[in-house]
């Protein structure tokens, strides 16, 4: 079955965790011990009903405060699809966690409290979803039970989000009025909102068209480890281990090795299941080549036609994640891109985006926690990349503080798909 990855997004107390809990509960995807633990915790909190948010908020601090802090992943399936749900925080200070949870998603669920309408955090998470290349956004107008299930409340929220999303080059958007607490329009249609003629949320998620998987892209395999047994039996063995991050490779294929720019032929493919004639995304493999080429960790083995670019200078969009420092031109950091690590210098800070208005500040001097900007980077070693819009793996990177090893930024190479950013 197809796998659909979903990330939730929205403001604080919009009901993200409750919505995921409702999806799991109504689709009968809750293990008995998890359900018992949630029921017990609900009684401790003196709730008169099962608190569905407890099915995803696993940290003690989350249960005590009633908020989501870390990204929680939950898995379930129906007869049509398998799903991975990422429950991401709504607090502004945890925006960086939302970036992490949405980085692999196919669909973003933007949850909006019907009482509050579209708020800054709703727009912020929609912008981040667009930057991360998510082409499907489902806007769930939640807590309709608290506004009398009135169409007159839902309609202006939908209109405002339609106008905003039109600026983000989103492939498709869908709007559902729901009550996660009561289950209206989550798994089953709501009799109390007969004015809504669309599908309930789960049915839409089962049928939404998924973009092409990495399997359909060009072959890319970052080298993680070079295997040299140094034994008499395997004296001439040299294997290049890594995971196929996109596309597929066959014995006999001509491949390019970058950044060296050499080509060779695949002679053998080893997989966890043994030798194979072909391997595809996302299999872990060891390749042997027909030529002796200097290949090491951080190099890329790829299809000989349509090779990615090799450079030591590039522009990127970054989300700054450090609470302790700010990003400024001249900052010296370490970049981790696929399996390569190198020193990096920020040579320019071009602009900063106001995620609430999509306005661009081109006179900014720095980026602080959770701010998003366009920068130029120069690296000490060549980076082999595709634009992020083409390949999420070879187009993404993280920046690390050299002294502390703290991850301080997540970046996407190339130009975003929207605006004058």
User: Span from first to last CA?
Assistant: 38 Å
- Biggest sheet layout: 8 strands, antiparallel
Radius of gyration: 24 Å
Average residue pLDDT: 87
**Assembly category:** single chain
Q: Determine the CATH superfamily of the largest domain.
A: P-loop containing nucleotide triphosphate hydrolases
CATH class designation of the largest domain: Alpha Beta
By secondary-structure content and strand pairing, the structural class works out as alpha+beta
How much strand content do the residues show? 35-45%
Q: In percent, how helical is the residue content?
A: 10-25%
Number of domains: 3
Count every beta strand, where a strand is a DSSP E run of 2 or more residues.
23
CATH architecture label name of the largest domain: 3-Layer(aba) Sandwich
């Amino acid at each position: 079955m197809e796998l659909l990855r979903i990330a939730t997004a929205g403001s604080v107390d919009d009901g993200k965790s409750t919505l995921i809990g409702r999806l799991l509960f109504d689709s009968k995807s809750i293990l008995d011990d998890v359900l018992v633990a949630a029921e017990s915790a609900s009684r401790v909190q003196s709730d008169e009903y099962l608190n569905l948010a407890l099915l995803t908020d696993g940290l003690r601090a989350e249960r005590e405060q009633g908020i989501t802090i870390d990204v929680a992943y939950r898995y379930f399936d129906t007869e049509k699809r398998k799903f991975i749900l990422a429950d991401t925080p709504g607090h502004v200070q945890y925006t960086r966690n939302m970036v992490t949870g949405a980085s692999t998603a196919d669909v973003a669920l933007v949850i909006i409290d019907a009482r509050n309408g579209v708020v800054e955090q709703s727009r912020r998470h929609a912008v981040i979803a667009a930057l991360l290349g998510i082409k499907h956004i489902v806007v769930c107008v939640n807590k309709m039970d608290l506004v009398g299930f009135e169409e007159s409340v839902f309609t202006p929220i939908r209109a405002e989000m339609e106008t905003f999303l039109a600026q983000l080059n989103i492939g498709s958007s869908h709007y559902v009025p729901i009550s996660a607490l009561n289950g209206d329009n989550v798994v089953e249609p709501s009799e109390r909102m007969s004015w809504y003629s669309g599908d309930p949320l789960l049915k839409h998620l089962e049928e939404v068209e998924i973009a092409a998987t990495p399997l359909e892209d060009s072959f890319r395999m970052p080298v993680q480890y070079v295997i040299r047994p140094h034994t008499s039996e395997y004296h001439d063995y040299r294997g290049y281990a890594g995971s196929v991050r996109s596309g597929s490779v066959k014995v006999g294929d001509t491949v390019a090795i970058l950044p060296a720019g050499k080509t060779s032929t695949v002679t053998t493919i080893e997989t966890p299941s043994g030798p194979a004639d072909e391997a595809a995304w996302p299999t872990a493999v060891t390749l042997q080549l027909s030529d002796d080429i200097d290949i090491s960790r951080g190099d890329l083995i790829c299809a000989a036609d349509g090779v990615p670019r090799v450079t030591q200078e590039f522009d990127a969009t970054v989300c700054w994640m450090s609470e302790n420092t700010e990003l400024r031109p001249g900052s010296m950091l370490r970049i981790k891109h696929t399996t390569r690590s190198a020193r990096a210098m920020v040579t320019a800070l071009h602009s900063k985006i106001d995620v609430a208005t999509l306005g661009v500040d081109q006179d900014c001097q720095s980026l602080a926690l959770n701010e998003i900007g366009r920068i130029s980077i120069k690296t000490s070693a060549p980076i082999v990349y595709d634009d992020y819009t083409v390949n999420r793996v070879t187009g993404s990177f993280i920046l690390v503080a050299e002294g502390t090893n703290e991850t301080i930024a997540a970046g996407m190479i190339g130009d975003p798909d929207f605006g004058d950013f």
